Amino acid sequence: xxxxxxxxxxxxxxxxxxxxxxxxxxxxxxxxxxxxxxxxxxxxxxxxxxxxxxxxxxxxxxxxxxxxxxxxxxxxxxxxxxxxxxxxxxxxxxxxxxxxxxxxxxxxxxxxxxxxxxxxxxxxxxxxxxxxxxxxxxxxxxxxxxxxxxxxxxxxxxxxxxxxxxxxxxxxxxxxxxxxxxxxxxxxxxxxxxxxxxxxxxxxxxxxxxxxxxxxxxxxxxxxxxxxxxxxxxxxxxxxxxxxxxxxxxxxxxxxxxxxxxxxxxxxxxxxxxxxxxxxxxxxxxxxxxxxxxxxxxxxxxxxxxxxxxxxxxxxxxxxxxxxxxxxxxxxxxxxxxxxxxxxxxxxxxxxxxxxx
Length: 357
Hints:
Type Iii Antifreeze Protein Isoform Hplc 12
């Protein structure tokens, strides 16, 4: 059973806390082990109402060459080598993730982790119901194929991509896997300035891939009104992944553009309000409108005194509120009828006042 896939299949907003490797810094701050810090973050995510937690599983040596340069805001994270940064946060292996999976199950929140190498992708298979593929691997077709063959639902981030790259990745997955596939729009800019969020891409993705679920992986800094995530949701992104921390003031890594538990609560509250406001797509009168509809609509009304036996002409009639009598759209059914009784001026016309010739 997967909370993510079940909610997305029903079109429900789904929030994923990207814990990544932020627990290492939380461990230092709290004076606890990284494993305990990871559990603490899972616990806080669950308490905030978040639907799933996601980690990042890698070894620096299989992920980045030692000469790999940084691509993040150095004023927030000063490490200038990808290898050196990842080396700080790669101590976990199968046993640690198994324990985190068991803890997540115990408290009732879905666990998953992005695999960045074949070994991780293989041992994570038994620990999660959904695979997440990073934007950084969008062109890594052999690795996408390897994960697709696990035959599980996939979340595919598509940051910094061209359409043909997205199509190739989707085609690769679909050649081996017919499970739920979600495309996550994101911008590979950490943090993403609001003016670069490019949320209309969500609309384009829905049009280009109507058979897929569309979501959003957000790297903007949280705002009080959650404008970015609310806009993404209104444009059709029903799955949102956002980095998660317990302290946004911590320097380095992914704390500076992450949501904390209070941010998550506001996001979920705001989405609930949006759902209430948006209603449904039915083109029908609401039950709550019916009284107003009856009183605000018009009826056919006698414009003059009409004697019993007189034939009804258009000049004898007008249209006034309320709509409790014969509707004006039936005017040509009324014209030519005979008055079955005396009808005083300003009387709302009803069926029993009329008869056929």
